[in-house]
Design brief:
CATH topology of the largest domain: Triger factor/SurA peptide-binding fold
Structural class: alpha+beta
Number of strands: 9
Number of domains: 2
Strand order of the largest sheet: 5-4-7-6
CATH architecture of the largest domain: Orthogonal Bundle
Helix content: 55-70%
Radius of gyration: 29 Å
């Protein structure tokens, strides 16, 4: 079925093309669902987006927004560069942009939409009081977890025989370290992972495999681990530092919170404006087009 929005008709083939472009993203949010169900959702979303775009285009034309030709050419060149140059239209496979004229129209519409968005999302910035309340109500958003700074020495292994040999090697290397050899020098000479001299930088929970993480978090600063087995082989972990969890002070994050909340407020203002246009518009499904 096609859609008629005021005096503009969006044909069924355009809705289907938009649904095809949206299908992959819709599918990600519906794991395990049959293709037919996903396509129904994609079609519904396509209709919503095309209705919004049609209403915005109609209002933009009514307000006679002008498109700066120089800025438009810059956007066209940038789009072509980012999407593969001369073969961009073949590579992106966007059903709505199949040639240069389509691209020019789409980018021109975007520029007009941006002018409409700018006009109809105007609102006062969120107050510092409201920003503070948001900050106090959601402490988890502003708390950093405990971090570790560590290095490792690795002897890689795949088969059980290799794991047995790697364990003996790691035990011997640990004894050398306990007798005073330098960890970094030993990594350079003996480790199967010499990148950055074995230094893993700073990391938090969830970044390393579970066996490695558990052992690392159980160490104190400056402590050397016992041999640790993971899927990669046997490790020795040297913990350099534990960086405690902390909460970012409101004064340090205040401006970003105000900016974030103000943008959300603008989005809501524009959504209300768009809903108002929908309420006043004539929107109906039509057949035979």
């Amino acid at each position: 079925m096609s859609i008629k929005i005021n005096d503009q008709i969006i044909p069924d083939w355009a809705i289907e093309r938009q649904a095809e472009a949206l299908f992959e993203n819709v599918a990600k949010g519906m794991p395990g669902k049959p293709r037919e169900i996903i396509m129904i959702s994609a079609l519904d979303l396509a209709k919503e987006r095309l209705i919004d775009q049609a209403l915005m285009a109609q209002e933009s034309r009514r307000r006679k927004y002008k498109v700066d030709s120089v800025e438009l050419q810059k956007k066209i060149k940038l789009w072509m560069k980012q999407n593969g140059g001369k073969k961009a239209f073949e590579k992106i496979k966007n059903p709505m942009i199949q040639n240069h004229d389509d691209l020019k129209r789409e980018l021109s519409d975007q520029m007009r939409f941006n002018q409409l968005l700018e006009e109809e999302s105007q609102c006062d910035p969120v107050s510092e009081t409201d920003a503070l309340k948001y900050y106090e109500d959601r402490p988890e958003l502003f708390r950093s977890e405990e971090q570790l700074s560590a290095s490792h020495l690795l002897k890689m292994a795949k088969s059980e025989e290799e794991f047995e040999k790697a364990l003996e090697d790691v035990k011997a290397l640990r004894e050398r370290l306990q007798k005073g050899e330098d960890f970094t020098e030993l990594v350079r000479a003996e480790s199967d992972d010499k990148g950055n001299d074995g230094n893993l930088g700073t990391f938090g929970k969830g970044r390393m495999v579970s066996e490695f993480e558990e052992a690392a978090y159980g160490l104190e600063s400056g402590e050397l681990s016992e041999p640790v087995r993971t899927q990669f082989g046997w490790h020795l972990i040297l913990l350099h530092e534990k960086i405690p969890a902390k909460i970012t002070a409101f004064d340090d994050i205040k401006e970003k919170v105000i900016e974030y909340l103000t943008e959300r407020k603008k989005d809501k203002v524009f959504e209300d404006f768009l809903d108002g246009m929908k309420a006043q518009a004539s929107i109906e499904e039509v057949s035979g087009i």
